[in-house]
């Protein structure tokens, strides 16, 4: 049957994290905004971000120092213009969050009428420049932004809706390079609807759910990257998947992240026998960039045949730990671990997608009227490795920049005419969801084994062959059955997994987060890995 449910707005924002909500709030005074949320509106990576947001607020710090730290962490392939753009606008955009009510911690030693914000330090930073709300910064930001969005009459939330695909103007007799809306799947009523909009913004986050072990929530399935690619957008640097070094190793807390700020405040990484190992790998010890720390932990686990390593801050006073890390402390106590007295078992886990959809400094993609902000993008900021707490910063700076550009063009773009209905007349309800589950588990397992912290050409070739087989099965399934959440996410993850592997196969060196035993050295001249859809249309019949 055909659906006849159509929504319309000036700006459709797909995603409800820091990037999407910040942009929605900035645009809303000028037009009607619809925000699409795949699950509950707070179920995204922003909510679970612990550490904080980086910006220069200390007089002894400088934007130049923030730039240098970012470039060093990015292992030589950050785009300096993008790094400068984001760091130079960081303070103003973070101040916008403060003015909006985000409760960043204040420095209790400052007894003045207007005390400074407390700043912490994380790996790769040469100064204290991380604003935070205890150890639950993302939760504080998400809650505040949501409250502000909920109170805005021009913003309408569609909760429990999956974005299915972008709609380009050639569907109604126009330009294939211009976006006019999107098909969306109503998870509440299980049917497809459409949204026509002057502008569409992808703010869907990353794709770490492609891995067996991840710190991310279940919604991080690469939807925006896959949709943009299918519609004709270039992607870049998807070989650079950041593995957070310290996720809790516990059967009852699969995705629980232990913030970098623990190491910033003096926690040590230890072997099971209690000895420190990071000084053996890097003179910066526990404050080395994340790729170095993650590889060191992985190496020690494999060398010793250990299930995990340990993070130990118990040498600090108990009241210091309880004050600075109340959320983590309470969660660990619930699991029977007292971090004030004992080390915490940890393993690395997939955490952040450093590459994504290519955008300019206004968040514009390769398609007219399509913008992208946040983890879904490649801006040039992160290079081969992301500096801690630059991710939330990238979200709010590009939300500001993209919103500014959209507002300037709102009156120059007409609302598209009615869009074609989604045709479900040739499909039936599935009676074989078990196929999706099997394919899902297989994908995540071999991506962890073959496209994980350490790679080889053979591992990547094996991964690509398996991805292509699963793509074929999933394409047949998609052609014959009505859509479901698992089907849409698996389809997108398979597409992004292919792009990740192809990017990794193209990089014949080890740099930052991409480490391959076949090419252990860095090339003298290197840059981003860019994939162009047009080159794949003839070679991949499932495109």
From TrEMBL:
<dbReference type="InterPro" id="IPR036188">
    <property type="entry name" value="FAD/NAD-bd_sf"/>
</dbReference>
<keyword id="KW-0662">Pyridine nucleotide biosynthesis</keyword>
<protein>
    <recommendedName>
        <fullName>L-aspartate oxidase</fullName>
        <ecNumber>1.4.3.16</ecNumber>
    </recommendedName>
</protein>
<keyword id="KW-0560">Oxidoreductase</keyword>
<keyword id="KW-0274">FAD</keyword>
<dbReference type="InterPro" id="IPR027477">
    <property type="entry name" value="Succ_DH/fumarate_Rdtase_cat_sf"/>
</dbReference>
<dbReference type="InterPro" id="IPR015939">
    <property type="entry name" value="Fum_Rdtase/Succ_DH_flav-like_C"/>
</dbReference>
<comment type="function">
    <text>Catalyzes the oxidation of L-aspartate to iminoaspartate.</text>
</comment>
<keyword id="KW-0285">Flavoprotein</keyword>
<comment type="pathway">
    <text>Cofactor biosynthesis; NAD(+) biosynthesis; iminoaspartate from L-aspartate (oxidase route): step 1/1.</text>
</comment>
<dbReference type="Pfam" id="PF02910">
    <property type="entry name" value="Succ_DH_flav_C"/>
</dbReference>
<feature type="domain" description="FAD-dependent oxidoreductase 2 FAD-binding">
    <location>
        <begin position="10"/>
        <end position="392"/>
    </location>
</feature>
<dbReference type="InterPro" id="IPR037099">
    <property type="entry name" value="Fum_R/Succ_DH_flav-like_C_sf"/>
</dbReference>
<feature type="domain" description="Fumarate reductase/succinate dehydrogenase flavoprotein-like C-terminal">
    <location>
        <begin position="441"/>
        <end position="522"/>
    </location>
</feature>
<comment type="similarity">
    <text>Belongs to the FAD-dependent oxidoreductase 2 family. NadB subfamily.</text>
</comment>
<dbReference type="InterPro" id="IPR003953">
    <property type="entry name" value="FAD-dep_OxRdtase_2_FAD-bd"/>
</dbReference>
<dbReference type="InterPro" id="IPR005288">
    <property type="entry name" value="NadB"/>
</dbReference>
<dbReference type="Pfam" id="PF00890">
    <property type="entry name" value="FAD_binding_2"/>
</dbReference>
């Amino acid at each position: 049957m055909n659906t006849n449910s159509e929504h319309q707005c000036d700006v459709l924002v797909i995603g409800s994290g820091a990037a999407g909500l910040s942009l929605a709030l900035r645009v809303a005074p000028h037009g009607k905004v619809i925000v699409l949320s795949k699950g509950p509106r707070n179920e995204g990576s922003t909510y679970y971000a612990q550490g904080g947001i980086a910006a220069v607020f200390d007089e002894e710090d400088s934007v130049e120092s923030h730039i240098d730290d970012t470039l060093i962490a990015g292992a030589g392939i950050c785009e300096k213009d993008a790094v400068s753009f984001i760091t130079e606008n960081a303070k103003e955009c973070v101040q916008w969050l403060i003015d909006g009510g985000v409760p960043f911690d204040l420095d209790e030693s400052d007894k003045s009428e207007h005390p400074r914000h407390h700043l912490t330090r994380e790996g790769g930073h040469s100064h204290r420049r991380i604003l935070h709300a205890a150890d639950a910064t993302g939760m504080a930001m998400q809650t505040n932004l949501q409250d502000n969005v909920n109170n805005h009459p021009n913003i309408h939330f569609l909760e429990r809706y999956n974005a299915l695909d972008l709609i380009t103007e050639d569907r109604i007799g126009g330009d294939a390079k211009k976006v006019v809306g999107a098909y969306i799947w109503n998870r509440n009523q299980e049917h497809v609807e459409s949204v026509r909009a002057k502008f569409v913004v992808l703010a869907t986050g990353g794709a770490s759910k492609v891995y067996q072990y991840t710190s991310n929530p279940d919604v991080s399935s690469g939807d925006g990257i896959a949709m943009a690619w299918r519609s004709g957008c270039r992607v870049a640097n998807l070989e650079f998947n950041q593995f957070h070094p310290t996720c809790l190793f516990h059967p009852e807390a699969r995705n629980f992240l232990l913030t970098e700020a623990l190491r910033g405040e003096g926690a040590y990484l230890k072997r099971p026998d209690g000895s420190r190992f990071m000084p053996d790998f890097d003179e910066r010890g526990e404050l080395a960039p994340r790729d170095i720390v993650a590889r060191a932990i992985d190496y020690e686990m494999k060398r010793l045949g250990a299930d995990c390593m340990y993070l130990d801050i118990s040498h600090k006073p108990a009241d210091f730990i309880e004050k600075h890390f109340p959320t983590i402390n309470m969660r660990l106590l619930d699991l029977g671990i007292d971090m004030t007295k004992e080390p915490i078992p940890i393993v690395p886990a997939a955490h952040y997608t450093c590459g994504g959809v290519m955008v300019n400094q206004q968040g514009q993609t390769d398609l007219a009227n399509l913008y992208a902000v946040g983890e879904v993008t490649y801006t040039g900021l992160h290079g081969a490795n992301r500096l801690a707490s630059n991710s939330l910063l990238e979200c709010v700076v590009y939300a500001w920049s993209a919103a500014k550009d959209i507002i300037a063009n709102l009156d120059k773009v007409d609302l598209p005419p009615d869009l074609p209905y989604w045709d479900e007349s040739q499909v039936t309800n599935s009676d074989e969801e078990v196929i999706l589950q099997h394919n899902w588990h297989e994908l995540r397992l071999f991506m962890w084994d073959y496209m994980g912290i350490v790679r080889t050409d053979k591992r990547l070739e094996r991964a690509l062959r398996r991805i292509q087989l699963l793509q074929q099965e999933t394409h047949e399934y998609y052609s014959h059955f009505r859509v479901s959440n698992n089907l849409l996410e698996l389809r997108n993850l398979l597409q992004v997994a292919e792009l990740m592997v192809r990017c990794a196969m193209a990089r014949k060196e080890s740099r930052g987060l991409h480490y391959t035993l076949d090419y252990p050295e860095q090339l003298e001249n290197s840059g981003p890995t860019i994939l162009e859809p047009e080159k794949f249309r003839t070679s991949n019949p499932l495109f």
